[in-house]
Specification:
It is built from two helices and no strands.
């Protein structure tokens, strides 16, 4: 595996993990504003985990 491929896999794993964390925080949040913020972050991390690595 090349270093570029390894970094891309690590980035994808990181963004997928952060998405899951934000979704969990969204479910536990009691403040509506916090829920919105966590949901927006989760969506952005989901997008990033699917985007190809930018050079």
């Amino acid at each position: 595996m090349t270093d570029s491929r390894r970094m891309n896999t690590a980035s994808t794993d990181y963004f997928a993990r952060r998405e899951a964390q934000e979704r969990a925080l969204c479910q536990r949040a009691t403040d509506p504003g916090a829920r919105i913020a966590h949901e927006q972050l989760a969506k952005r991390y989901a997008e990033l985990s699917r985007e190809p690595e930018l050079a």
